[in-house]
Every structure is written in structure tokens, then in C-alpha cells.
Design goal:
By secondary structure, the chain is an alpha/beta fold. The protein is built from 14 helices and eight strands. The protein is globular.
């Protein structure tokens, strides 16, 4: 069954009416209701607020990294472990083919249902997850394979064990090593891009966001708690933080926005996957057309241009 957000109540009602009309085999009513549904959907999604986009980024039915892997990747094989501590299920690594192009995919996976959310630690990687990601990225570099990073995490896991095993060092190491990795790489925020947990696999030649994804230094709830001592002011924080794809593109903090179905990637994950796959393949062709020196120089200029300051 579809999951509806609070601002989709009118859409939910029309969907229920369509289901009832189909059960009654009332073809004319179905046609009328489908036109009403199209109009209501267009009206609802035409002017979404920043907070509503945040809700879409967190939608429980939104495609996760494994969904994109299973749709896009052919003859894929999963790679496990950091060869130091253990395999972190919050980070997934695959090698396979996208439209005949041999690639490595590294992503953050949240999991659905209590059992799999716990297995994936709600998409919050431990240090061994980031070290696994770096190990596999280095393998891709060795064999000259392009990398697709899929970012989707509320943040790196803040537990005591993670801190004891060097969470901050693992993230910092990835920022350093991925910035000078000698193979084409593209990072795409597919849902939530939370703080250093997202940045740790977000340093690449190109950084893009799905239309209804978000990217921020802290969650709106955390921001509201710090600034106003009131987590309930998350709507106000969401607007102030400028965390939507459109905001970040206007601030030149990301390279591109990838389109997704008008009413969200969760309504048609295959169309969303097609958009993501096409973007990746087009950008990889551009990057592969450059020589190593040109590509690395462009990446360097991109990274040092982030942010602004006044002396």
C-alpha cells in the first residue's frame, strides 16, 4: 500500500475513490477521478515548501541505494568488509555494469522494516563502513573503473564504539583520499545527505542531487534544538538552512539537479533510476574524454571554489 504524507491527504482521498470505483466497475467514474487526480497532484507538487521536500527526501517508500543497484546494475557482485574490523551493512559496495559500462557503486543503505533498519543501522555508517568504502574506491582506481557514490544517510553513527574506533579520522581520511583518487567519480544524493556522514562519500568529480533530496550540515531537528532549544521548530530551521537541491544549486555547492517523477521518486522508482543512470553515463563520458591532468585540475578547482569569505 502507498504511504501518503500529510500534505497528500487530498490525493489519498481521490486514490481511495478510484479504488472504490474500480471495484464497482464504474469506468466513467474512474476516468473522471483520474483527471481529478492529475489536477490535484499538479496543484500539490507545484509549490512545495522546503519542509515538504524534506518529507519527500525521508519518505519510507523512496528508492534506497539497493533499489538503484538492482534496477541499474547488471551482473553485479557485492564486496564486503574493510579488512580490519568487520563488514558494515550501512555501506554497500558493488561491481557490475550499467548499460555496458563496468563500474563500481558505493552507497549508504537505510533498510526497510525493523529487522533491516537495525541491520543497516538506519543508514548510519560506522568507521569500518567508511574504511570499506575507501578500500573499494582504491580498488576501482587500481583497475581504472569509474565510481558511482549514492549518498543517503541522516549522518555518521555517533555511538561510543564508533568514536573509539576513530569515526572522525575515518571521515577525514576519506575526504583526503577521495579528493585525489585517480579515477572518474560521481556522487549523487538520492535522499538525505547528512553532515560528515554524507561528505565521506561525497567528494568526487561531480556532485549532484535528486530533485527532492536534501543535503545539510545537521538535521533540521538538531539545528532547531541548538538554535532555539526547541526541536519542534524544524520547519523554520529547514527553510533557514537552505538544504534543498534548488537552494544548493543556486549557491554553487552542487553541480547538477537530477529530475525525478513529478510526485516523487517513490511513485515510480524505475523512472527515477533511469534519470539517475542516464546522468551518470553522460557525465562519465565527459570525464573520460579528459586526460588525467585535466580531470584532476578541474576537480581541484571545484573543491577550492566551495564557500565564500571576506577578508
Amino acid at each position: 500500500m502507498a504511504t501518503y504524507l500529510d500534505f497528500e491527504n487530498a490525493i489519498k482521498q481521490i486514490d481511495n475513490d478510484i479504488t472504490s470505483a474500480k471495484i464497482k466497475n464504474d469506468i466513467e467514474a474512474v476516468k473522471i477521478l483520474e483527471k481529478d487526480l492529475e489536477k490535484e497532484t499538479a496543484k500539490t507538487y507545484k509549490n512545495l515548501s522546503d519542509y515538504q521536500k524534506l518529507q519527500l527526501a525521508r519518505h519510507p517508500d523512496r528508492p534506497y541505494a539497493l533499489d538503484y543497484v538492482r534496477i541499474l546494475l547488471k551482473d553485479y557482485y557485492e564486496i564486503h568488509g574493510d579488512r580490519a574490523f568487520k563488514d558494515d551493512s550501512a555501506i554497500i559496495c558493488f561491481i557490475g555494469y550499467i548499460a555496458g559500462e563496468k563500474v563500481v557503486v558505493i552507497g549508504e543503505q537505510k533498510g526497510r522494516g525493523t529487522k533491516y533498519k537495525l541491520k543497516r543501522n538506519f543508514g548510519m555508517p560506522n568507521p569500518e563502513g567508511y574504511r570499506k568504502a575507501l578500500r573499494v574506491a582504491k580498488m576501482a582506481e587500481k583497475f581504472h573503473l569509474p565510481i558511482l557514490f549514492l549518498v543517503d544517510t541522516p549522518g555518521a553513527y555517533p555511538g561510543i564504539g564508533a568514536e573509539e574506533r576513530g569515526q572522525s579520522e575515518a571521515i577525514a581520511r576519506n575526504l583526503l583520499e577521495l579528493s585525489r583518487l585517480n579515477t572518474p567519480s560521481i556522487s549523487i544524493v538520492i535522499g538525505e545527505g547528512g553532515s560528515g556522514g554524507a561528505l565521506a562519500i561525497g567528494v568526487s568529480d561531480k556532485l549532484a542531487m535528486m530533485k527532492y533530496s536534501i543535503f545539510s550540515v545537521i538535521s533540521p531537528e538538531g539545528c532547531a534544538a541548538i538554535l532555539w532549544n526547541d526541536p519542534s521548530k524544524q520547519k523554520q530551521a529547514t527553510k533557514a538552512m537552505k538544504i534543498t537541491a534548488e537552494d544548493l544549486k543556486n549557491l554553487n555547492l552542487i553541480d547538477d539537479i537530477i529530475d525525478e517523477p513529478f510526485n516523487g521518486a517513490h511513485r515510480d522508482k524505475y523512472a527515477a533510476a533511469e534519470s539517475l543512470g542516464n546522468y551518470f553515463l553522460n557525465q562519465i563520458k565527459e570525464l573520460q574524454a579528459m586526460n588525467t591532468e585535466q580531470r584532476m585540475q578541474k576537480r581541484y578547482e571545484k573543491l577550492i571554489s566551495v564557500g565564500s569569505y571576506k577578508e
